[in-house]
Amino acid sequence: MKVPEHFGELVFDDTTMRSRLPRETYEALKRTINQGRSLDINVANVVANAMKNWAVERGATHYTHWFQPMTGITAEKHNSFISPTPDGRVIMEFSGSELVRGESDASSFPSGGLRATFEARGYTAWDPTSYAFIKGRTLCIPTAFCSYGGHALDKKTPLLRSMEAINRQALRILRLFGNTNVSYVRTCVGAEQEYFLIDKAMFDKRPDLKFCGRTLFGAKPPKGQELEDHYYGPIKPRVAAFMEELNDELWKVGILAKTQHNEVAPSQHELAPIFTTTNIATDHNQLIMELMKQVASKHGMVCLLHEKPFAGVNGSGKHNNWSLATDTGINLLTPGDTPYENAQFLLFLVAVIQAVDDYQDLLRLSVATAGNDLRLGANEAPPNIISVFLGEELSAVLDAIEHNKPYNSGKKEVIKLGVHVLPKFPKDTTDRNRTSPFAFTGNKFEFRMVGASNSIACANIMINTAVAESLRQYADYLEAAPDFIPALQELIRSTIIKHKRIIFNGNNYDPAWQSEAVGVRGLLNLKTTPDCMPCLLSKKNVELLVSHRVYSEPELRSRCEIILENYCKVINIEALTMIEMARKQILPAVEGYCADLANAAALKRAIVPDIELSYEKGLIQRLTRLINEISERTDALEAALCEIRKIETVEKQSCACRDLILTKMNELRAAADEAETIVAGGYWPYPTYGELLFGVR
Ligand code: ADP
Ligand code: MG
Fold first, then answer.
1. Which contiguous run of DSSP H or E holds residue 159?
2. Which letter does DSSP use for residue 518 in this model?
3. Ligand 1 in contact with 323 (CB < 6 A)?
4. Each residue of 276-291: pLDDT tens digit?
5. For a Cys-Cys bond, which of 299, 386, 437, 649 suits 382, CB 3.0-4.6 Å?
6. How do residues 339-352 score in pLDDT, each as one tens digit?
7. What are the structural domain ranges in the chain?
8. Which atom of ligand 1 approaches the CA of 321 most closely?
């Protein structure tokens, strides 16, 4: 495929709009996109008609409002364009009102109590800042999703609100620096996506992968990732063919897929697109995940996006690269060439540092799921403790400002903001601390805790709003200050002093860090979803999110409930799957092998009566012990599931899932995994870890 020719061919993008819309319509639409003006229905009608013609020419027969309910995946309900004519034929029609607003029965989407079932309707509203695109034979229109009462039922509405919040506050700061030509500030995101590819035939043999997306049993293979020979290794032909087709599909829908490589774990890979505006990056990430699964199945493989599909090897996450940019093309996290730009950079930098420190709990809970809990803090994943990596040079600059001392040995003068130019920070000296959950990497921050299957919306909602709050405080203070530069210097200095505890450039995997972080620095260590979710409703966090108009209080309560409910459901499904696997397949398999051994021993003894049978005896004894253990532990898990059903509140239930069910699951797994290591090949009902991880060639 000739990439430049085909790139974006399935997107109703700016070029297409310009060529297909009358000039006034195009300009009115651009005003809506860039300045958030509401769209006149006459303009919407013209846009809808042009969009429909364009889509029909490309084979589309249907349209859908494409939205992101709180399930974390995307939803669509297709309507055809057909409209009957008096002569019994049809024409293809699409009106402005259909484009701008849709109505759908939303009763089966999670709402966390926001929408009573008798009020089942939900509304979808076009987000014109994210372009419409064609998927299959359907024109997809990115939309927000609200209840009849106006509550956000999705992840996109709060995301857009958080982008507005940070825009409002960042503009106030820029004005203080005398910047009048910027008309808006946007956050940008590049989300690196990790995933596993495994063979479809093997996947089909494993109920755990089918129902839960991760293995619930599986003994450690002789070879895992210890040699790290997979990382950046040559890409196997079958995987290469997958990547090639995936790239073509992504490019056609206008996604800037850029980098691909093998990851650390065997069968693990990564794809990174070029960064773009956050809401578009979020839409694109959802599409990337969807297309990865689709394309994999065409190649006889399954794409696993679970955060921890295999115990003992790396899990999968997303690195959410985040920055702030003006409409004039300036990245506010790049130190500039002049003293004023430098001072401005430092203010935005400390704003992020403060935000991460003040709202550690919100960042942690923005990535909380049952799956991600298994990944964080294990095998090369960031720990549950949030800290910021700045690198030595930038830390030295902050240190000099804090102590009013000269920066670097060559210079004698102390750094005076608004007077001195900072040195450039080459990317290579700031990057490469792979252990940090929140790292400054030259001109952006990389939040590495997002889970592979999570929507990136939640993480960005929290980052945007927390930074908006730092900026609000700074703007309030500086706008009232009689003398800007000294006030700025003092503000940056006091912010460093107050929030430097969150800065950590060392190894986050080091157990000593865990005790220092919590014991000495007082940082949070929220290990699981039930630990962190209640923080969403703390006074400080509700105040933040409500005052910046990102969530209403009922919306927050609903999110908390949905996430905890989902946590319990996921663990419940996993437990039930284990019980079924243990009873229907694992126990019979071990029993079958045991019986064959016993028969073999009996036969031998029939031929040679006093024959020594130590091998068979020992093995039969060990297998029998394991059979009993597996059986008892399966029963115990089942009993525990019955227990937790009696618990009334979802908060308590989620804690019981964590403390009771997960423990019982681990105990059952340990017995079954031990059995797997001694049962002869051919008896075990499932493909092994070795086969799964090294099965695609
Ligand atoms: P790596 O982290 O592997 O060294 P890069 O830093 O080049 O790779 O890029 C990782 C991701 O960060 C890519 O998706 C890239 O587009 C994105 N990125 C680069 N610059 C920015 C920026 N200013 N804002 C947001 N994302 C960015
Ligand atoms: Mg990276």
1. helix 156-176
2. I
3. yes
4. 999 999 999 999 999 9
5. 437
6. 778 899 999 999 99
7. 3-154, 162-212+239-551, 566-693
8. 26
